[in-house]
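Report of the visiting student (M.T.), summer placement. My assignment was to run the structure pipeline on a short list of targets and document each run. The first record concerns Acyl-CoA dehydrogenase.
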Amino acid sequence: MILQERMHKLNTSDLNQEVFNENVLNWISQENLWNLWVPQSHGGLEMSLSKGLEKLKCLAQYDGSLGWTVTLCSGANFFFGNLKKETVDAVFLNPKTPVCFGGSGGVFGTAEKKDGGYVLSGVWKYATGAPYLTHFTLSAKIIDNGVPLVDKDGAPVVRSFVIDKDAVEIIPDWNTMGLKATATHSFKVNNKWVDASYSFIYQERYHEHPIFKIHFAVFADLTLWVNYIGMATHFLEEAKQVLMDKSRLDYFGILIEKANIKVKEYALKIENEIRLGHDLPEIWIKEIHQEASDSVKTFSETIINIFPLLGIRACSESQKLNQIFRDYFTATQHHIFSRK
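After the run finished, the structure tokens were exported:
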């Protein structure tokens, strides 16, 4: 049974909530979506980049919060590749509940060096899926004997960490117009010890699975880009149900198809380069980011141009069209493709 058919087991009313209920969370766990990129040896699906991107796009097309949450949390589980074997064995082998990482990409706190580990303190914003997480990920400036460490260029030394949910206080401050069930709350950590083995750096990898050889910036760009494509596709589908002159939507359909083709091309090129043992050229990394940024910008402008044509139904909060609009434009506030 293909994913689209299995998604129809989900009740729409279950999805359109402040948080996902047990029905949705159980479905995600049954589909093993938190572990999209995790190796099969550790209970994951071990998806290729191409297949994983297609699955994330389908989820976002079905429901923005569902796609966004699975993307960000499975994307945090991608840090499997940055953790040493003894650490991933301890976390992913025989867990009591399905492992779900998530957290903040911002450097909002500090990590004070101690023998064998660090003491973490701070408040981090925007942890997608906060109530669903088993482990929180965060980045912090390193402090040694009360002095912030800096590198040879004078920039703060930063490391990332994985900590158990019990070490975290969730701050329920996600009050947005859309992507509500992503529950992207802030969280606080107050003088919590973490062993050094639960610390990592994005550029260091300890596992040879092909997916972990992808530059993290490219992985982030592509996995989020397909969410915008999925939500845009859903918006187009719903707009066709409302607008009498469907030819006015043709341009939007062309934009979406162009984006789909580009994503597939990039994914196949990346997979081929990794198969050949090559690192991704810096020019590719910049090109993919620029292409994704331009694509999302054009989607946004086109949706804004279409919206006034769709009548009061598009403005009614009870309507799917309105929810997609709110989800999409909440997603545009993520820093990854925004131009401040």
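The longest strand covers residues 101-114. The chain has a mean pLDDT of 94. I thank the supervising group for their guidance throughout the placement.
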